[in-house]
Design a protein that fits this description.
Elements lengths: L1 H5 L6 H11 L7 E5 L6 E5 L2 E5 L2 H7 L9
Antiparallel strand pairs: 1-2, 2-3
Length: 71
């Protein structure tokens, strides 16, 4: 789902995510409601699910209760 969202991204790491998805033959889905606010990551909807791609620091500063779920 991340690769589906990233194919519309301007971020330099989007290319690496898309390359990995292609190697693994991941079927990309059509994203909607895409937003890329500066410094806040990438958000959108894929297959009815809300997806957010952002850095660990940004994510944990905004949602400290999620720290225990990250590996």
């Amino acid at each position: 789902m991340t690769a589906s969202l990233e194919r519309n991204s301007r971020h330099p790491l989007a290319g690496a995510i898309l390359d990995a998805a292609q190697i693994e033959r991941v079927r990309l889905l059509e994203p909607s409601n895409i937003s890329e606010p500066p410094g806040r990551g990438l958000v959108g909807t894929v297959s009815g699910r809300s997806i957010r791609v952002t850095g660990r620091t940004k994510l944990t500063s905004e949602q400290p209760d999620i720290v225990g779920l990250l590996h």
